[in-house]
Amino acid sequence: MIRRIVVATGAVALVAASAAMTVTVAAPTLDHATPKSFQIAPPAPIVACPGAQTVPVGDVGAGGDLASEPTVRTLDVLGPEATREVGFGQGADDSIAVQTERIGDGDIEGWAAVTCTQPSFDQWLVGGATTLGSSARLVLSNPSAASTEVTVTIYGPLGAQADPLIVPVAPGGAVQRLIEGVAAEMSAMVVRVQATGPGVVAYLQDSRLEGFQPAGTAWVGGSVPATDLAIPLVNADARPVGGTAAADQGAGAELPNPGSADPAPPVLDVPATTVTVRLMAPDGANVELALVSSQGVESWSVGQPIALDAGVVTDVDVPTGALGAIEVRSDAPVVAAARTVVARAPQEGLAGDVAYDHAWVPAMDVRTSTALSAVVPSDGARLAVYSPAAKRVDVLNDAGEVVGSADLTARTVQWVPISAAAGSRVHVTGVFAWAFGMTSDRGYLASVAPVDISSASVTATVIPRTYPPSAGG
Q1: In what helix (H) or strand (E) does residue 218 lie, and over which residues does it extend?
Q2: For residue 42, is pLDDT > 90?
Q3: How many other C-beta atoms can be found within 10 angstroms of the C-beta atom of residue 462?
Q4: CA atoms 118, 123, 124, 128: torsion sign
Q5: Weakest-pLDDT range from 88-102, 365-379, 449-463
Q6: What DSSP string runs through 356-375?
Q7: How far apart are CA 258 and CA 346, in angstroms?
Q8: 3-state SS class at 23
Q9: What's the pLDDT tens digit per position in 77-128?
Q10: pTM, whole model, 2 decimals?
Q11: Distance from CA of residue 207 to its chain's centroid?
Q12: Distance between CA atoms of 118 and 116, rounded to whole angstroms?
């Protein structure tokens, strides 16, 4: 009994000593608490293209006048570097490329082109619709070696959908989603794509039907929210180099039927070219629009600033003549793009049928000087350049040589001749908005917008600190 008491007393003494040591030992101090900064080099550039367009609105026939699947198709990916398979399309170890596609028949007959870009963490796709006869196919490509998770938010005429889509994308793969499957009957839409990890490359295929006739197909690329924007290419004049195009002739023009072998082909009355500007302000905004041409500011006006509710997508019709540009001025960031629609004679169909093609051009920030780049999509492509101020624009190739130039007056847009072969990269630095336009004598239309390919290093700063005390003291 006495022995047990002695042991207990010793244990109490040991606990007391430990407590004393805990109280008296001070936290370590750092001799040098100076923050340290270092540079993190940007990752090696890598791009992805969306691949061939598909017929997402259903098969309405296997052949003849009701054929839906294309049988005549040309798909090219152009750029300085070799390509490899990435999901549905191609990728390359490069900072930029371009994909062009020419489809000669079927439901998605027309031309489509897009700049192939590097993965991003946040992208806005302004374009598309899911009303009857329209399909919006979202393609998410991941050219990197790590997986990513994508959050897709869809905005429409009533604002943002409550439930975003969560889509995982495997390394080196791609996924597609038909927006009409989750957001039907949207006459106007904007899609926001946010990604984790290495990011993702997002595109939207906008394909439409007018009865049994194709009504245009195009790729929608990324847009950037800003308060001072310009859309440099509305009404691409639809005049091919060295020829006369259908849509260049305006309302009531008589067009030859390209599917007829008759020496005196029948003629067709077609509607005039139409242009629609699409706007959306994530947090709401008041927007003013102006139309400019090669002569300066045009008289068109919507009459007063447009009040945009947060997340609500709005379309505005724009009168067209020759080549034009749209100025967008806002008191809060907005995203914007313009859709040009040209009518053409159909290859097959009933008497009086009219087919169409269309192209989307995103708005570009014109607040400060930027360096934008693009790959020339074809030898017949033309370059439209808008300038908010009187300025000379120089178009440079990779060697720094001037391949095109023009003196622009303030608030005008004009065609700038260039001498650069298809597949070569060109660069423009300054406060300009510009894009390539392509047309054919059959009334097909496509456009290619430039992107910023600069990749600056990231500065990381480490501040030495002691570990915070634990929750238990």
Answers
A1: strand 213-220
A2: no
A3: 9
A4: positive
A5: 449-463
A6: EEEEEEE-EE-SS-EEEEEE
A7: 7
A8: helix
A9: 998 888 899 999 999 999 999 999 999 988 999 999 999 999 999 999 999 9
A10: 0.82
A11: 16
A12: 7
Most confident of 128-142, 315-329, 443-457: 128-142
Read out DSSP for 241-257?
TTS--SGGG-TTEEEE-
Backbone phi, psi, residue 268, to 5°:
-140, 135
Distance CA 106, CA 103 (A): 8
Question: Tokens representing 409?
Answer: 């007056």
Reply yes or no on whether the pLDDT at 52 is more than 80: yes
End-to-end CA distance of the chain: 37
Give mean pLDDT, residues 271-286: 95
Q: Which residue has the tokens 């239309």?
A: 445
| pLDDT (0 to 100) of residue 26 | 55
E strand spans, 105-147: 110-116, 122-126, 134-141
Amino acid identity at 450: P
Integer Cα distance of 176 and 344 in angstroms: 30
Place of tokens 């040209």: 342
What count of other Cβ atoms lies within 10 Å of the Cβ of residue 13? 10
Distances (CA, A) of 42 to 39, 46, 201, 431, 453: 9, 11, 17, 25, 12
The pLDDT of residue 243 is above 50: no
Of 216, 127, 149, 135, residue with least CA distance to 181: 135
Tokens 């260049």 -> residue: 248
Q: What angle do CA 186, 227, 115 make, to 5 degrees?
A: 65
H or E element that contains 332: strand 324-344
pLDDT average, residue stretch 220-236? 93
Q: Which of 140, 89, 139, 115 is nearest to 446 (CA)?
A: 115
Size (the chain), residues: 473
Which DSSP letter does residue 397 get? E
Residue 131 in tokens: 């009303």
Name which of 314-323, 368-377, 414-423 the model is least confident about. Answer: 314-323
**What span, in angstroms and rounded, lies between the C-alpha atoms of 155 and 125?**
10
Rounded CA-CA distance 147/173 in Å is 9
* Strand, coil or helix: 48: strand
Kindly list the distances between the CA atom of residue 201 and the CA atoms of 51, 270, 391, 439, in Å, as whole numbers in the listed order.
Answer: 12, 37, 34, 26
Cβ neighbours of residue 125 closer than 8 Å, sequence gap 6 or more: 138, 190, 191, 192, 193, 202, 203, 204, 220, 221, 222, 223
Highest mean pLDDT among 2-6, 52-56, 254-258: 52-56
What is the distance between the alpha carbons of residues 456 and 40, in angstroms, rounded to a whole number?
9
Average pLDDT of the chain?
84
